[in-house]
């Protein structure tokens, strides 16, 4: 049976990344968590690429490291136990994509969450580093304290990005009763 056309936010984010990211590219996972997105990116960038992966929690960096080792992908990644808002201190090369999966660490302390002011600072850094044609995907959850404010703050900020340089999209399944995650995507135009 063929898959539905309308996808969940995470699946759509992955499909968009797959269309853009190529072997040898540089990618950034701004919220490593348990490493699923870092693994996905490490597979997309291939042997010649590199993934920078950030998280503020040592537990998340350890979980990501273990997950990468199991898949023999650790040598394609640079794991950084620091906030994504400090991205420009660590990443000194152009990037093809950046990925955010906001909220708290699944299986971890639910009171440690991403914060909109840090995410915006990180996005600003990513926009400086992003190659023309590059993509930033942000999966936002509204079902926990602070999640709705975070989403609205980001939509507000992103809606004011210069349309000559960027396109911004907001994807949401509107008829689902249990607050589904939403996807924000920023594309840097090839010619701006
Ligand atoms: C929903 S989880 C990420 C899930 C992950 N992408 C995965 O595939 O398993 C969100 C993560 O963001 C992290 N985080 C919170 N604030 C952060 C910050 N300022 N910089 C980097 N990571 C942060 C949390 O510690 C948490 O692990």
Give a description of the structure.
With 192 residues, the chain is of the alpha/beta class. The chain has one domain (9-188): Vaccinia Virus protein VP39 (Rossmann fold), CATH 3.40.50. Helix content is 34%, strand content 23%. The chain has six helices and seven strands, in the order αβαβαβαβαβαββ. A seven-stranded mixed sheet has the order 3-2-1-4-5-7-6, with helices on both faces. The chain is globular. The model has no long low-confidence stretch (mean pLDDT 96). S-adenosylmethionine (SAM) is lined by residues 30-31, 33-37, 54-57, 60, 83-85, 101, 103-105, 112, 114, 118.
Radius of gyration: 16 Å
**Count of the domains:** 1
Q: What class do helices, strands and sheet pairing give?
A: alpha/beta
The end-to-end distance, rounded to whole angstroms, is 41 Å
Please report which band the strand proportion falls in: under 5%, 5-15%, 15-25%, 25-35%, 35-45% or over 45%: 15-25%
What number is the mean pLDDT?
96
CATH class: Alpha Beta
**Lateral arrangement of strands in the main beta sheet:** 3-2-1-4-5-7-6
Query: What order do the SSEs take from the amino end to the carboxyl end, as H and E?
Result: HEHEHEHEHEHEE
Bound ions, cofactors and other small molecules, one mention each = S-adenosylmethionine
């Amino acid at each position: 049976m063929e898959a539905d056309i309308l996808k969940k936010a995470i699946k759509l984010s992955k499909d968009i990344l797959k269309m853009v990211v190529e072997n040898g590219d540089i990618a950034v996972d701004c919220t490593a968590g348990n490493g699923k997105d870092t693994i996905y990116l490490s597979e997309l960038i291939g042997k010649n690429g590199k993934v920078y992966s950030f998280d503020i929690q040592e537990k998340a960096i350890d979980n990501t490291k273990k997950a990468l080792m199991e898949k023999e992908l650790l040598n394609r990644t640079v794991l950084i136990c620091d906030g994504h808002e400090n991205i420009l201190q660590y990443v000194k090369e152009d990037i093809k994509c950046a990925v955010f999966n906001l909220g708290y660490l699944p299986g971890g302390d639910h009171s440690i969450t991403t914060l909109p002011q840090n995410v915006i600072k990180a996005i600003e850094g990513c926009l400086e580093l992003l190659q023309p044609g590059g993509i930033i995907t942000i999966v936002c959850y509204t079902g926990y304290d602070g999640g709705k404010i975070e989403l609205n703050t980001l939509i507000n900020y992103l809606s004011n990005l210069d349309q000559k340089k960027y396109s911004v999209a907001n994807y949401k399944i509107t008829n689902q009763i249990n607050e589904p995650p939403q996807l924000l995507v920023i594309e840097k135009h090839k010619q701006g």
